[in-house]
Amino acid sequence: MxxxxxxxxLDGITKRVFRRVWHAHFGGADxxxxxxxxxxxxxxxxxxxxxxxxxxxxxxxVPQVMAKQAADFVWAAEALADMGYEEVNLNLGCPSGTxxxxxxxxxxxxxxxxxxxxxxxxxxxxxxxxxxxTRLGYHTxxxxxxxxxxxxxxxxxxxxxxxxxxxxxxxxxxxxxxFALAMAESKNPVCYNGDLTSVAGVRALEAQFPxxxxxxxxxxxxxxxxxxxxxxxxxxxxxxxxxxxTQELYQAYQDFYGQAAPASQRMKEVWFYLIHLFENGERxxxxxxxxxxPRAYEELEARIFQELELLEDPQGELA
Length: 319
Ligand SMILES: Cc1cc2nc3c(=O)[nH]c(=O)nc-3n(C[C@H](O)[C@H](O)[C@H](O)COP(=O)(O)O)c2cc1C
Fold this sequence. Notes:
By secondary structure, the protein is α/β, with parallel strands linked by helices. The chain is built from 14 helices and eight strands. Helix content is about 45%, strand content about 10%. The structure holds flavin mononucleotide. Flavin mononucleotide binds next to strand 2 and helix 9.
């Protein structure tokens, strides 16, 4: 039985405003991973990062750091510990070309010996527990056994595995055979991440890996904000509840940005996933994606709630 459910970090989407409103309306996540910060060698937390990381609501959060140099990661981990964080996550998964070209994110998986030295420096110096979120490799899944051997040399608080390689980004089949290897051979606790979008999907994962005690869910919990609650035996979201959620979120974004245009842009990113909760949502969802400006957004959102019914048993398509 999976005992712990983590909310995955989605940069640009699951930022502070989203986490706060989602948590208030639906909840059910044991921990929220904050999308990465990427410290420079100047070693300052920018005012923007600080705003993102401040946590007056006291949500159970884990911040994530992306760095090429171990010294920069260690510095950031210390700064985050000073802010009260009790675990810091290392990003070894980001597939973006601009990130990997700088040797960060999944770019660190390219050279296993270098990764080993990086982890050695991090685990010799860090005073706060460090967890890792990784892919199977940079080029091919066959790289994973070697990487796992390296991970096994360090006391990683939790190894979250997204069983794809960098060119696969977030699409196509996941390599469950290699996740099975992580389950069999990891000396550190393991968390599964990838494409969990329905109660049935999570139950199937539990049946396949009875020893798995943590899963991380991202897009599935945006597409169906009640998914984690449903996994704990709670009810599905009603239309009224979803409307209250989207309206508060839109208002919170307007308060944050001080204007409606960027707020409606953020909402459209949420609706990109959320539309899959509705029967025949493609047409209005497509119109919303192509629409411009807050008025068009508001009209289309109102039409979705007026005209469309919720699916009986959403399977959480990932768009
Ligand atoms: C738009 C977007 C932004 C993301 N940002 C981050 C990030 O900041 N840090 C990270 O570790 N993963 C990031 N991810 C990956 C997700 O955390 C997660 O691993 C991925 O979406 C697969 O899980 P899911 O199928 O449950 O969504 C991002 C994914 C997407 C689609």
